[in-house]
Each structure stands twice: as structure tokens, then as C-alpha cells.
Amino acid sequence: ETIYLADYTPFGWTVEDVHLTFRLAPESTRVISKIRFVPNPEASQERFFLHGEELTLVSAKIDGQSVSPEITEQGLTCAVPKGAFTWEAEVEIAPAKNFALEGLYMSNGMYCTQCEAEGFRKITYYPDRPDVMSVFTVRIEGDEPVKLSNGNPVASGEGFAEWHDPWPKPAYLFALVAGELVAHPDRFTTRSGKDVELNIYVRPGDEDKCAFGMEALKKSMKWDEDVYGREYDLDIFNIVAVDDFNMGAMENKGLNIFNSSCVLASPETSTDANFERIEAIIAHEYFHNWTGNRITCRDWFQLCLKEGLTVFRDASFTADMRSEPVKRISDVIDLRARQFREDNGPLAHPVRPESFQEINNFYTATVYEKGAEVIGMLKRLVGDEAYAKALDLYFDRHDGDAATIEDWLKVFEDATGRDLTQFKRWYSQAGTPRLRVSESWDDGTFTLTFRQETPPTPGQPTKLPQVLPIAVGLIGPNGDEVQETTLLEMTEAEQSFSFSGLGARPVPSILRGFSAPVVLQHETDTETRAFLLAHDTDPYNRWEAGRSLAKQALLRMITEGAEPDPAYLGALQTVITDETLDPAFRALTLALPSEDDLAQTLHEGGTTPDPQLIWEKREEMREAMARWMPDQLATLYRVHQVPGEYRPDAEPAAARALANTALGLLTRLDGGEAARAQYASADNMTQQLAALTALLSIGAAETELAAFYEQWKEDRLVIDKWFSMQVAFARPEETADVAAALVAHPDFDMKNPNRFRAVFGALSMSQAGFHAPSGKGYALLADWLIKLDALNPQTTARMCAAFQTWKRFDAGRQALIKAELERIAAREGLSRDVSEMVTRILNH
Ligand code: ARG
Ligand code: ZN
User: What region holds the Peptidase M1 alanyl aminopeptidase Ig-like fold domain (predicted)?
Assistant: First the structure.
């Protein structure tokens, strides 16, 4: 069944308040609900329908009288009085048998919940839609020492705890946790003087991994006050770490629940990248308190209203805490890897989709990351001051609302007087615009002519021009900037912009800061790119110049059998040895475009990509880089060692990133000597893992891999790394066999999404290994997707996206993939989640 945005109607009742009592038992939890319904004056009264799935109804009453509702797989209907009434129900559920990890389930003996998007209906009968908001009071009965829910604690005693959340909320923000947990406590005073109790709850043994997350939380609270003027609004804020979790984390009101991989951190077990990610996710979930909870979504089509904005906010936070250019470059790498890939294939959909079968399939890079890009463009177009004004208006006008994208754009129109009709296409039109640039020079006037075109996507054969903010600067022939960054606002399919009064023909720096999520097509020569790599004042475009040089060189190696380009290697050497540049920036410049990026570019240029060849040429390029500048790399490695105690801050992390990138290259020359030494002396996970992966990439890690397992076998999150790196760094012809061997390992547990993704996420991301001509990778993944779907449809469906690029490849690979997709599609009892994904991918 397909659900359409156009069909939205409000619910016939509002919910005045909700009382829930939980009598916890693993196989037979009782949930007793008491809900006050009042006719909704803004809706036409329809049939009284409550969502409910996998529930056993024990009893139901209306105004104290027993009733016998009509029950289906999706919920119940019941005859109800004309006016207001009280609904009471008792249901039974079995959290210990809930492997979908949606609703109330158990993880390592602990009770926890995940309700977004539509999991509350697995807890009790309820109008489970985000526009129905209510005040919840929750009583939890059980022996567990810690029993938590949303809001403020109001009472507790022998075997029970009661919570009251004064802020009306939709059911998807409901949460409950109970178990043997220990708290890492702290406090925060808001700027208006409110004293807030903070806790990170973990399983006994993980107490020493909470300090960093707590600091990140306090920084986030402060930042949201300083930058957005938003204060926290309850007496207590709790975070709980859970090992079995489908996604990263969840912003339940006052009780955020985290995948333990996204909150637990220690120098010995977490890498620099882990620390940065944890800080960002804690911020993200905290920021949802205003952008998501206080102002929520009217319906799930509006998901980007909270997610795009909250990703944009957490990216700004990270930029402020660490390095702005490095954050921007990393985000663009990620956007291209995940969102452009989605936009270019069968799963392309608008930032605000117009239909879905299973909403969980739309928690995508497009909704989240492109959704954040759209907000970044809006901010650039209106300017920082107007953005701040519009946001104040948004919070003023919509606090307590379940809002829409129309509401969001209206505050910008009202705050700035701008007409956003055309801009709104960013929410409705799928696909990545291609932006073609040509330049001309005439007697002191330099003209840039742009043409935009968005390729067709499923259901959208033709596209209209978008509003494109194009940030441009001009560099004079001697390397000085002659035009500082200025914003060109493109609205037509084709448009020219001129700069006059110039003494000499400049070199343009186009799309500075990646000011719009487009594919820029600018035909320039190697010299111009090298010139920009040396002289651009915009760090993002400087990096981009290096990236495009690398890409050009690799594409020539792949399509023409060219040698690694000395012009690229020379330019690279100049940049990486420039000690005035941030080491993190230099590390990013040393990295090559991904195999996936190269495959997409080849495909678009009319060449069928050969994954094995792409892999080999990237290896050859790395080898050439190492041979071109061995002494410089050795110096970088030595100079950027970080002495003293490990700190996860941006500065030492940047030094480690550069040193370890150099190590990866040097390992190709020294047979692993430096990496083995680093492995032996490492006292933190960043150093240990960098050494181990360097050794893995030359196939010389046997001893260290065994030692690593022995050292960490009791730590689930570290063992996830052990699983994934073996797949990620295998030679392509062995990738599928390595993955197959790992799933036979006693520590492989398909029920744990982190462990499942460690193996199969790594398999599907190693392009050459996954697409090995034997088809072994496809078959292995399909086998396990079929197995997992019976337990956990949500995680299974997400992993189906591994097949989304199938139409790029040759007929042989396409036939193999098609057969696997059809094998999955033909399974009896296939989940709605997986069936929707496989159908969309097949119908390309
Ligand atoms: N709202 C959460 C976040 O972005 C994601 C939860 C999504 N869960 C799901 N089952 N689709 O922070
Ligand atoms: Zn979010």
C-alpha cells in the first residue's frame, strides 16, 4: 500500500493526555493505557482508528464500559461517543522476542524502545502519527534498578517509577528504558539559571567511556544557547547507550537513546574519527529538542523539516568546535559518496518525498544530507542576519506545532520579503543538477556562462531550473585574488555573469565552499587546476582542485592506460610539504577519489566501469605517490607524531591523520616495518588501527590481526572494527571469501545490527570486491539479507541499497545482480521494507 503526501487529513480527535503503565516481563509485558480523546474541531469526524501491530488486546473500555473493537493487522476500529471520551486498554507484548528492534525490545537484558517512525504502535493502540501530540505520564513497574522515561521524574519506590513529560509530544518521541545501568552524572546551568541534571546511562563496565560524550553534551547545550538562543526545557536530560540499535541514535524527549557505538568513547578503544562522530551525534540529538521535538513534523513526508535542519545545525556546531574547512570538505566527500550515488540511481527521491510504502526506507542521505545542503543554500542566499531573524520567527511562530516545509519557507519569506516559489523546487525535484561552465575574456571583461540541467529520476522525466547560489572568486595570473568571493544567483537554465575592469584574464574559482549540491562541469587543463591548488584562497576549492587533478589522472590511467601524471604528483608534493597548511587539510588532499566516484564518472561519460581495473589503477597511483616522494612522506610521518597523552581534539587528530596517511603510503615501500613498529608501541586506537590497516593493505597483518583479536575480544565495539577491516582491506578476489569466513566466526551475531553491518556494510562498500565477476559477493549478501529480513526488516532494507548502482555495470554483472534481486523479491513473507526497496531497485 502506497501512502501519498497529497492525501493528508488531520486526525478526527485530539489527545488531551495519556497515562501509561508498564508491567515489565520479557515474554509478557502488560501495557495499560488511559487516553483522553476530544473531537478535533479542525477535522471532519471519521471512523475511530487506532494503530496497533503485534499486540494482544486483553481488555478495552470506553468511559469505563467494556467494548469489543474490530481488530486487524494494522490496528483497531471501534464505535465511540460523539463528544470527548476516555479510552482504556490493556495489551500484552513480548519484548524478548522483538528482534526488529522497533517498539519495546530487549538488548543485553535491558528494556529499551525505538518508536520513530512508527514503532509506538507495537507498544499499545494509539493514533501513531506525528501530528497527534499529547502530554504523557508513565508508570514503570519492575525489579530493574533503573527505570526511565521522558520528562521529569515524579515518584519512585519499591518496584516502580513514575515520569511526567509536560511538553506535548507525538508518540514517536516516547521512550522507556529499564535495566541494570550505571549513570555517569553531571549538571548544566542554562543561561536563565535553570539547573539541569545530566546522565549518561551505560552497562556496568562501560562507565569509563562516558566522559567525552558528557563534555560533548554540555558543549552542545551551550552552543545552542549562544548561536540559536535555545535553552533546555526540563529538569533532567538522560542519554542511554544500547548495544542493539538499528540507527545511530534517537532524540526521544529528555531521554535520548544511542547506539553504543555513537556515544561510548575512550582513547584505547575509539579512533579520532569515532570521537568526532560521537561529538556530532550527541549534538545532533540534543539539537532535535528544538528542531524536531518542540517543533515537530505534521506527517512523515516532512521528515527533512527536522532532519535537514538538525544536520545543518550539527555541522555548524562541528565547524565551530573544530575546523570549518575540514568539516566542509569531509561533508562534501560524504555527500558525493552517499547522496549523489542515491540521486543517480533507482532510489532517487526528492528531499521531501511524495509517496512511500515504508517510511523507514526514507531515512536517507537525500532527506538528511541534501536536506541540510538546502538549508545551507537558503542561508547563503538570504545572508546570516536574515537567517537568524527567520529562525527566531520559526521558533516563535511554530513552537508546539507539527509543521510543514511550507511553514518553514513562509518564515523566510516573511522575515526577508523574498519569494521562495522557485527555491521550493529543491524540496520537490529529485536528482543532482549538472552545472556546465564556460568562460570568455574580452578587453578587461571576464564572463562566466552557466548552463544547468538535472537528469531524469524515477517518476520525474523532466526538470525545471533550480535556484543555484554560486560562490565565485577570481585569481589574477600572479596568484593574487582580484575578486573576492561573491555570490551569483542563478535562476535560469542558462545565465551569464560578467566581471569588468580587470587588468588581465583571471582564473575563476567557482562554487566556493561547495555553495550548491551540484556536479560542476568545468573543462580546465592540468595547469589551471594545479594553479588553483597552489593559489586559491578558498580552502574548499583548493582541495577540490587537487581532487579534480587526481580524478583526471586516474581516469586517464583507467581509460587510456596512461602513467600516473607527474604534474599531479608534483603539485601534490608541493601542497603536502607546505607546513603553513593544516595537516588535516593535507591529509584530505592526499586521499584519492573513491572507486565509486570514478565508476559513476566513467558511466556518465559513456564508459562501462570495470571495478577491478579501477581498484588496480588506484593501487598503482598510491604506489606512484609513495615512490614519487618517499623522503617527504617519511619526514611528514616523523614530524607529525604527537607526543604525550592522547587527546581527541582537532589539532592532535589532524597531525595523526597526516602522519597515518603518510604511513599508509610508506608501508608500500618498507614492507610494513614502520607500521609494525607503530602497532607495537601504540597506546590508542587511532594509532593501533592505522598501523593494522596499513599492514592489511599489503597483506602482511596476520600476526597483528590475531593479537588484536586476543587483546579486544571482550569489547564488542572494537571487535566490530576487527570484523569490518578484514573485509574492507581484502584483495577484491578474496573479499567475498573473507566475509563468508567471518560470518562463520563464533562472534558473528546477525541479530546485532552493528556486527551485521561490520561485515556486510564493508562488503558492499568495497566496490571491486563486491562486484567481483564471480558474483560471489552478490550471492553472499542476498543470502544474508534473506536471513535477516525474517528478524529485522529495517536494517535489511537499508542494506539492499548495496545493489542500487547495478545498471552502471556490464551485462554479465547486471544479470547476476538481477537474479539475486529477483531471488529476494520472490521470498514468501518478505517484509514491506525490503519489498519496497527491491522493487524500486529492479524497476529502474
Ligand atoms: N531521528 C533519528 C535521528 O536522526 C533517527 C531515527 C530513525 N529511526 C528509524 N527507525 N527510522 O537522529
Ligand atoms: Zn536526526
Answer: 431-522
* Widest distance between CA atoms in the chain: 89
Distance CA 69, CA 71 (A): 6
Residue whose C-alpha cell is 529476494:
824
End-to-end CA distance of the chain: 20
> pLDDT tens digit string along 323-372?
999 999 999 999 999 999 999 999 999 999 999 999 999 999 999 999 99
Distance from Cα 307 to the centre of ligand 2, integer Å: 5
Average of pLDDT values for 389-405?
99
CA–CA distance, 296 with 290 (Å, rounded to integer): 8
Which of 116, 356, 792 for mutating ligand 1's site (highest number of atoms within 8 Å of CB)? Answer: 116
Residue with CA nearest ligand 1 atom 12: 250
369 Cβ inside 6 Å of ligand 1: no
Residue 702, Cβ density class (10 Å: 0-12 exposed, 13-18 middle, ≥19 buried): exposed
Cβ–ligand 1 distance for 249 under 6 Å, the answer: yes
Let me know if 285 is a catalytic residue. Answer: yes
732 SS3 class: helix
| Nearest alpha carbon, ligand 1 atom 1 | 250
C-alpha grid cell for residue 693?
Answer: 590497516
Integer Cα distance of 539 and 514 in angstroms:
11
pLDDT in tens, 600-629: 999 999 999 999 999 999 999 999 999 999
pLDDT tens digits, 729-757: 999 999 999 999 999 999 999 999 999 99
Kindly report, residue by residue over 619-673, the tens digit of the pLDDT. Answer: 999 999 999 999 999 999 999 999 999 999 999 999 999 999 999 999 999 999 9
CA nearest 809: which of 595, 651, 618? 595
How many angstroms separate the alpha carbon of residue 363 from the centre of ligand 2? Answer: 9
Tens digits of per-residue pLDDT, 431-484? 999 999 999 999 999 999 999 999 999 999 999 999 999 999 999 999 999 999
Taking CA 830 as the corner, what is the angle to CA 827 and CA 831, rounded to the nearest 5 degrees? Answer: 165
What interface predicted TM-score (ipTM) does this complex get? Answer: 0.98
Q: Which atom of ligand 1 is nearest to the CA of 281?
A: 12
Integer Cα distance of 392 and 410 in angstroms: 13
Asked if residue 246 has its Cβ within 6 Å of ligand 1, the reply is: yes
Would the CB of 148 count as within 6 Å of ligand 1?
no
Ligand 1 neighbourhood includes 14 CB (under 6 angstroms): no
